[in-house]
Each structure stands twice: as structure tokens, then as C-alpha cells.
Amino acid sequence: MNNTDSREPGFPSCVLITGATGGIGGALAVEYAAAGAKTLILQGRNTERLQELADRCGALGARVVTQALDVRDHDALMAWLADVCESEMPSLVVANAGVNINTGPDGQGEDWQDVLRLLDVNVRAVFATVHGVLPAMRKRGHGQIALVSSLAAWRGLPETPSYSASKAAVKVYGEAMRDALAHEGIKFNVIMPGYVESQMCFDMPGPKPFLWKADKAARVIRRGLQANRARISFPFPLNLGCFLLSVIHPAVSGWILKRMGYGD
Ligand SMILES: NC(=O)c1ccc[n+]([C@@H]2O[C@H](COP(=O)([O-])OP(=O)(O)OC[C@H]3O[C@@H](n4cnc5c(N)ncnc54)[C@H](OP(=O)(O)O)[C@@H]3O)[C@@H](O)[C@H]2O)c1
């Protein structure tokens, strides 16, 4: 089966998105459906939202397969991915499901059980997604896997230490995997969004400079993936600022962050 679209070289006609019920994942599903993807495989937990999204993408001409699953069940996640890779052969897999926690309104600190849950979703489930789809892609000799990190991966933010660390893990993992698998024809991309309108973003404390709409983020992500860019980071000014914070002395970056209203 050839899962690429003849109108646009390399266009993935079958796209699998985890966390499709959320702001960015949902916008990505619609973006790919509107761009002509033939099949979308959409995962989330919220079955009502999954159905709404399936209807919307279906109306745009895509065939939609949905899967309600908690990605913290890593064995179930990997078993489902192995199955769906056999039956549908997704050409692009976006590991997007994620959660955020913070240190609380009075800076009381992160709850340990919440930290474990976050690591299960943001790190272990992302790695499990890669391990779930990689065997089929290696067998085929091609495929694309995009991992959703964050600009918070450049320099940890005081409100969200575990989240920042989890996104740094995903960034580093994706970069290493890109180099490790390129010779087998498998593309890895790391997506580093800044602030994008979504429930997670609204729930997050602290300033939100350069806030983007989710559909704009989805457009930029799709184009970046089409061009197989190693890192798809946006918006430009915030990306540059966060990158610079990561290379200067941490005492100085900490001072700047405080002046900007982080960690107050
Ligand atoms: N929005 C931002 O400003 C921003 C910035 C940088 C990076 N990101 C990253 O972008 C990705 C998407 O986030 P978003 O902003 O779209 O947030 P969101 O609207 O809160 O969506 C999060 C998605 O993850 C899914 N999810 C969470 N826990 C899950 C679990 N245990 N099992 C299965 N699915 C689970 C949710 O599914 P259900 O709702 O169905 O449970 C939902 O689809 C995340 O990885 C996030 O870290 C977001």
C-alpha cells in the first residue's frame, strides 16, 4: 500500500495523532483532513470530543479511525499501535498527548503523584509510542514520527519544573532518534510550540507572550513536517528568547525570568 499523496510529494495520506481531543491535536487533525489526508487515526480519552472531531474531519473527506485509550497504560498503547500499524500503516505519527502541572498558586510545590502521572504521559508514553510504531516503519523502510516537546524544553520555568524537564527529555530523545534512524528512511521531528490556545495553556500560570491560535500552530507544524525540519519551533521571537536563556548563565536567565513575571 502506498500511503503518500501523489499531489504533494511526501504528503502523508494516513496520519496518526495522539491527544487529538486537545487544542493542538484537534487542530492538527482538521489541518490534515483539510489538506487531503485520506485516513486519520485519532486517539484521546474524551469519546464525545473524539466523535465530534471524527465528524468534522469526515466532512472534510477523511476516513477517520478513533481510539479512546489512556496512554499511561503503556502496554495497551503499544499493543494498539502495533495493531493499527498492521491494518492502516500510518505514514506520519504525531506523539502529541501531554499534560501539565505546576507548583500551585502559593508555590507549595508539585505533588509527587502528579509528577509520576506527568512523566507517564509526557515521557514514558511518548517513548512507548515510538516503540509501538517503529517495528512496522523499520520493516517498511520509511515513516515519519513527530514528537511534541515545548519551548519550555530550552530552559526550565520555575512554575513548571517537571513539565519543562519532561519536554527537554522528549526534545533530546527526538534529536537522537532522528540521527539514529535517518539511514533507515525514518524521519523524526521535534515540535517545540510556544503558547498555543488550549485547555492546558489556559490552566497554566504565568505570562503567555505571543499566544497563538491552535489552527495557526497546526498549519506551521504541518508545513514543517512536510519539509522534514528537525526542529519545528515557534513563534520565532519566543523561540529565540528561550534559546538564548538556555545558553547564558542560569543565574542570569533566572533573574531575567523573574523580571518577566515567572516564578513570582
Ligand atoms: N498549548 C500550549 O501552549 C503548548 C505549548 C507547548 C507544548 N504543548 C504540548 O502540546 C501537546 C498538546 O497539548 P494541548 O495544548 O493541545 O493541550 P490539551 O488541549 O490539554 O490536550 C492534551 C491532549 O492530551 C491528551 N491526554 C492527556 N493525558 C492523556 C492520557 N493519560 N491518555 C490519553 N490522552 C491523554 C488529552 O486527551 P483527553 O482530553 O481526551 O484526555 C488531550 O487530547 C502537549 O504535549 C503539550 O505539552 C502545548
Index terms:
single chain; 264 residues; alpha/beta; Rossmann fold; two-stranded antiparallel ribbon; globular; binds NADP nicotinamide-adenine-dinucleotide phosphate
Characterize the structure shown:
The chain is an alpha/beta fold and 264 residues long. It has one domain: Rossmann fold, CATH 3.40.50.720. Helices cover 49% and strands 16% of the residues. It contains nine helices and nine strands. The strands form two sheets. A seven-stranded parallel sheet has the order 5-4-3-6-7-8-9, sandwiched between helices. Helix 4 packs parallel to helix 5. The chain is globular and about 50 Å long. The N terminus is likely disordered. The chain binds NADP nicotinamide-adenine-dinucleotide phosphate. The site of NADP nicotinamide-adenine-dinucleotide phosphate (NAP) has 27 residues, from helix 1 and helix 6.
Q: Short summary of the structure?
A:
This protein has 9 helices and 9 strands. It has 264 residues and is an alpha/beta fold.
SSE blueprint:
Layout lengths: L3 E2 L5 E2 L1 E4 L5 H13 L3 E6 L2 H13 L3 E6 L5 H14 L4 E4 L16 H29 L2 E6 L12 H21 L4 E8 L5 H5 L10 H13 L4 E4 L1 H12 L2 H10 L5
Parallel strand pairs: 3-4, 3-6, 4-5, 6-7, 7-8, 8-9
Antiparallel strand pairs: 1-2
CATH superfamily: NAD(P)-binding Rossmann-like Domain
How would you state the average pLDDT, rounded?
95
Largest sheet: 7 strands, parallel
CATH class: Alpha Beta
**Oligomeric state of the chains present here:** single chain
Following the backbone from N to C, one meets helices and strands in this order, namely EEEHEHEHEHEHEHHEHH
- Order of strands across the main sheet: 5-4-3-6-7-8-9
Uncertain spans: 1-7
